[in-house]
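INPUT
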Amino acid sequence: MMKHRFWFSAALLVWASVFFGARHAVGADFFETHCVDCHNAATTEGGLNLHDLSRNIGDRSAFRKWVRIHDRIQSGEMPPPGQPQPTEQERARVIGSLRQLLIQTESRLTEPDQTRVRRLTRVEYENTIRDLFGMRLQLQERLPGDGKVHGFDRNSDALAISHVHLAKYVEAADHVLDFAICTQPKPPQAETYRISPAEDGGVSLLAAFNGGAVFLRDKQPDPQHPPVVEGIQHVDRGAHKILGMYEDAESVGIHRHEDSSFMPRFQAFSAIYPGRYRVRTSLWSYTWDQGEVKPARGTEAARFTMIQLKGNGRHNGHPSYLIGYFDAPSIDSQVHEFEWWFNPKDCLGFNVALAPVHIYHQYKRDLNSFTGPGIACDYVEVEGPLYDQWPPKAHRELFGDLPLIEFDANSQAVTFPERERPKQQITGAKNRQQEYQGDWTVHSQAPAADARRLLAAFLPKAFRRPVPDELVESYVDLAKQRLAAGDCFELAMRYAYRAALCSPDFLYHIEPSDRDDIDEFSLANRLSYFLWNSLPDAELTQLAMAGTLHQPEVLRAQVERLLRHEKSNRFVRDFCRQWLRLEDIAANDADPKLYPEASTYMQNSMVAETEAYFRELLDADLDATHLIDSDFAMLNEKLAVHYGIAGVSGSQVRKVKLPPDSPRGGLLTQASILKVTANGTTTSPVPRGAFVMERLLGQPVDPPPEDVPAIDPDVRGATTIREQLTRHRADPACAGCHAKLDPAGFALESFDVLGGFRERYRTMEGDNAPPERILLDPHLRVSFKLGPNVDPSYRLADGREFADVQGLKRHLVADPQLLATNVARQLAIYAVSRELGFRDRDAITQIVADAGTGGIRSIIHQLVQNELFHTR
Amino acid sequence: MSNQRIHLCRAASRRAAFGGVTRRLAIAAALGALLTAVSADVLRGQDAPDPEEATFRILGLFMKVRVEAFEKAAAAIDDLQVVRVDYDAGEATLRLSGPLRLQKGDRDRQLRALNERVRIGTRGAFELAAPQAKLLSKRTKVEIAIKGHDCLGCSFGAYRAIYQLKGVYRVTADFGEGQVIAWIDPQVTDRDTLQAELEKKKVVLRGDD
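OUTPUT
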């Protein structure tokens, strides 16, 4: 009853405020004079009926519309040009009144914007497990995908939970415990395996047979293994293998790019024991010129992946993830060494990061007539598993220093775990399981006391806060129940640990507080999940326990510590993935005929550039104008060539000074941004303009009305998108939004679907001229032509004109406040895991003001210090 | 593939290598005297009987250069010594000692065991079978022109395509020479069959293109 009365009062207040009275609060005259003529029940211009809207102020949808009304009057967009304009005083007065009204109303909404209880995202879950146990397990794919609200997956509305989640969490917990619990008294001995790429299961055996690869010796074709010529393939792979010809091979050069039927890998080593391994490999590149090995065009790159083999490892289609790209200098072997975590059945995948698949199919016919780049691999060496201690950290987290004892699996007195002996299951793998040391398990002489001691130590780490004794006791009881039922100590404790890993205390971000402000542990969690995407470490936890974390100077020091740590790259990756939609980078493939230069390497380089650029902004605390423009870019050779910038060699991304006339610099013209805002064939100013408005400027434009059809691009290239949009804008219902969307979109028409700079559109139609091959790989087969000219000129909604993207950039960087406010807002949404409300605008304004002339790092510091970060 | 199926496949390949009943009789005849002597030694209770020499057909001698490879590989096998190799006949005389000496009893089984030692010792590159040089002169020689890489592995591949066929007694293959030569029993097989089998294994026959 009270609730209804409140809403009635609120609606009445607004209604009265706006139209009938309280002129000192909201100027009714203002709306009558400037708004109602167009936005009434009869006209509803722009879909807005002020009479109807005002009665529903308590509704969140209507509230959002009122916020937009506020923003449009404030920005001067409304009343529109050509209509009678209010004085500045009138405008300020109505804005002030509306603002006050909105703040008051928002605080009374049934569901105010507030950080609510939410579960861990998949990324957070994986990182949390990794840091808790010190194991780099791949867990994300074991869990259902997360949703997304307001551009981020951290909002509770995006993180529903279902019975499927629960089942998957139980499976994941079992998987983690399987790996974490030590079952042998001594570690497996570290062994070194040297794998020739020519070995059975090696990268190129098959390729060498059909011409996708060649055997090399002393940097020349190996006379013992002649290349495929005139369409004649080698005969009987098994016969070659029996004669040991692959073991004798010195190097293998590969021309063929990975595709659905060719997934080269070093299957001769497939891990049996999980752990860290040291990998060494020797790579070089060359140009294959009709049977001869000649110097390469530059430093090529090889891509290493981790392939998670299924079953016995035969066939293709196994899941994999990228490890990285490694340089292969011209006719000069370079040895690379890195450490990586292998899980059982993991093996290294290898791919040449050359041109796209379809380009090099000609090698199949005749290597005596084929000319193209190749990468040679001399060997791959895998050493491991490497352990810092035994039992490893994961086991110690669960069982401390309790001893391991050998047990009798057939014992009738106690139920012992069923042990699956490690065994090589992968076909072609040469590494074998080591001698099994028997069935061992952890032993406790005082099970109840040990269970209590171990759980009391583990649960606060897993739950990320102090755990009351009664909660610890409830988990101890679980262990006791299993002990009473005859389970051995390990099984009993496993039961309790599994329950803990599936409990809300672990799976959810719980911020227990009966007030709006959060406690010290919640603060530690927020900070850690913000900048590390994982649980707090010991230092953060200690500060929270001491109650000093909230102190500004302590908080500042911790932010610095966290940002300097390697784990902060998780934040960079995850924040950019969501804010800039990098996760959509592979959403569509470029049309191979129009864009033959497209490749996986290029695509991965695009993402690497944006992440490295954001990292640079963070490290150097560069101001928000760098989101739009900069005098440098973060490039590797692949992107540098794509951008037409000389002097960059190799696969590693580094800071490169840009020429003064370069259209590059800033996020705006990075290939990743330009690709995620295009489809695989054409570009459109609309989605690109929308991206710029929403993600970079923080001024999202309303989606089009449902009855307005989408603009179909003319794929024949006869009509430019500008011509189509000109017709579209003739409709007044469309003109308003397009005045905001189109400017940035038109300027970005200078970039194709891959982010390559263009002055003319590519087309497959007509008698147009072929392209000059300045920036195109000379080995590419080019069939597209050049169509109409690109016109990147236009004007902003406020009338300021520009001739090209550089002109647009100059206009945009003129308002650093706008850019800083947007980035602060995006960071805040990510950090506090909720959409920001109208009332949070002051906080964002304050954060930006406090950051002063500082950049992204300063904004993060001020955000963490701000009350917004400390309240729900 | 299950272990049981693998076992069955191996058994089948052994049967194929040694042929049918006729060849089993030939094996028995060739080894008869040797086995009798060996078993006699055993029955006399001698601890270390003298090594015995015996001649076998060697599968895998598809090019002359493989003679040296056979000698090298066989040298690594305990209790086995190569006395001489007759490439033209595709046979070798071996000196067997210790546990490799052939005993009285199941002769097929003993020869299979010996073949297994050779096969494993040479990593599948060579196998043993009963000798047949005397029969070879009565066989029909078929020469097939082939085209491809001058590659040892490919030559072995062409050899493997036909050496186990019924009615085939000896095969040589050399892409360098551009030729496969087979000695066959025309009552059992013929040129067309051999060519078809070669093409099945992607061996390009000269004149095909």
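end of record. The radius of gyration of chain A is 31 Å.
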